[in-house]
Amino acid sequence: MADRCALFSRGPAVAIVVMEILALVFTLFVAGCDDSDIDREGIDVDLENLRSTVLEKGDDAQIQAEGIGAPAAPVLIELLESNDAEVRDIALSCLVLTGYDETALILARSLSDKDESVRIRALQSLRSRYDTSILRELTNNLTNQDSVVRGGVARLIGLIGDVKASKPLRKRLEDETDLLAGKQIKLALARLGDEDLKEEFASLLESGTAGGGRYQIIRDFEYINDPKLAKRLMPALSDTGDAYEIGHPAEQPQFARVCDAAVTLIGKWFDKPFSFETDDLKTYSDEEIGEAQRFIESLE
Predict the structure, then answer these.
(1) What is the pLDDT of residues 248-274, one digit of tens each?
(2) Can you give the pTM of this predicted structure?
(3) What CA–CA distance (Å, rounded) separates 146 from 118?
């Protein structure tokens, strides 16, 4: 009270100016609070709309989720508990668009969903979102009931690159009965440094079926990612069988050959090994393939 009296004792004009400033500050404060409340109410409405859209299996659920962003995650995670597999699948497809920090962990936990479509959705989404933080969840899924998931997580474990994961991979390989899952486990172990398994895959390239068979082995080489295997690509450089399509869908089919795939892989493994550029969509001339052969022969 004394301070206010002192203020007015300095003159009415000064007092009026000060009081106007205080009123302005108060108004701005209140306005800020109102905006926050309005924003919160707006988000709540958006979240309820998203919940309804997912439950109703609406076509624009993903658009809504992406627009809301990370704040949508709690609602979508809650919907992952739905008894309706299609709702869980839609919720998961929405979650990956929100930018939520724990998305990879939620995806890894969804690998054990009782519905196949949800498991596959989670596995496919993890291919661009895996990291070391989910290594334990991936390892746990090496005993998943679904052989596709077992093989898929083995591949992801290899990509993460932690050699300590070799032990659970080897243990699973002893019990694995599915051929495709077993191959993925072997590939993961080869990527993690198992020299015997690298040799096993390399020998397949030498004796493998020309064309598509050899191309698949080249793809396996690319996954293993060991440039020391480059010398083993020599048989593929003389294989002119079709490997994969590179033409425009609306035009006459055009294919890259096995030899093209081999040259391209060498280009990925080494820093500018050739006098020409390499590209997945390129077919190489006889001269360029010859240069690739000479490069391989020069390797120790």
Answers:
(1) 878 888 999 999 999 999 999 999 999
(2) 0.82
(3) 12
